[in-house]
Please model this.
Amino acid sequence: MDYFWIDEERELRKTYSDLLNDLRRKRYSYSYIYFDNPYEIILEIIHSLIQGRTVELLDSDFSTTEIANLGIEKSELKKYESASVRLTSISDLYASIEKGKLTWKIGIYTSGTTGRPKKVYHTFNSITRNIKIGDKFRGNVWAFAYNPTHFAGLQVLLQALMNMNPMVYIFESKKDRIESLLKKYRVTNISATPTFYKMIIPVLKNPVDSVRRVTFGGERFDNTILKMIKTSFPNAKIRNIYASTEAGSLFTAEGDVFVIPEKITKFVKIQPDGELLIHASLLGQSNDFSLDNDWYHTGDIVEKVDERSFKFVSRKTEMINVGGYKINPNEVEEVIKQIDGIIDVQVTARQNRLTGNILVAKIVSAPGISKELLEKKILEHVSRTLQRWKIPRIFQFVDKVEITRTGKKVRQ
Amino acid sequence: MEEKILEIINSLLAKKNSLQLEQLDPELSFWDDLGLDSLDMAELTVKIEDEFGIDIFEDSFVYKVSDVIKKLSRSE
Model:
């Protein structure tokens, strides 16, 4: 059977013919994709793709406040009637994609440097820049281990769809079921963040021989995990990928040295201070980009190895990476400041080997307020207003928050 | 040591409105039995590091409560 989507937690096993049926049956569309069930998310994405229309992806755990902060009205989230699609065979599906992809656009939100998330539109071409299609990839089976509303998830979806591969959704699976899922469906390809691998590796009791390709994305790669990956997936080639919501997937590395593909060398520049710049022509479309003569500052500090390769050294911006999610500490501070009894707050990063960083909130509280109660109040408020990974995990009550001479908070 | 680990785990469970553990069962898995996710585990790691000076994810990974107890006893 030609499986398309397997989500055992939700007892969903969809074949490619089921996909055709589900697409044919659709009578409604959405401008904003805001669902809990990942299958509904990808169905709506594919529907928009074959119709060549523009959609925007919202994380299913966005709160009403976060959605309002994006400038989206509640009424805009509603469904509307749309023309039905004519698909009689799988080849119709791919012919419709070929046509639809010319006008299709998909909007993704990412943490902006200003405190407000920025919206980036991608086209079929900008997402599929590094996607490979061909007979060689026809037999692949993908583990789907990303949030389907994020760029990396979208890439796995299109890579699998364009080669008619099955996807096995393991992103929310119970960890001790993952080995049996990988074996049952003979998964050949996994792409995930280092944090995800660190969670599943201890649970893999025996090597999974079917896996041929293991890809890391979303965070800085750390070498401690490499040996264990090789033990768990003895037949896999390991690859590291550099991608961002702004620019899509750009570079890959077999170890920690990233290679700039020849066709984009002209569009990649390394500044004297080591910052990596990307030319506007490689970016998605956004009104929120601040460009410097058509060059986009990535905030990544790299070290040149030779003319066409580099290693990552550090980050220049204030953004904090928690398990592959970029967070602007200013956004979190703004939300905490809304609470009575808070005089000042500073959100910083505390490093750890599992998620890279977690957030620490340093709080200056008004005199006479119980710190325990205040911490509880803050947690309640941020849990209502922010996504889980934007919630500070450690609270420290301090007398004052350190500020630099230019008035910026010291985060290091 | 075990008491402190129990206290840290219970502080995480309290945040998730989950039932408190009365005692530490080494066989419990953090993810599947206690329902912790990577963010909870990162917090646990940092709190254990502050308390015992040991990074439990330094050279291998952690699945069960017993993995943490072993790592901390080895360095005592």
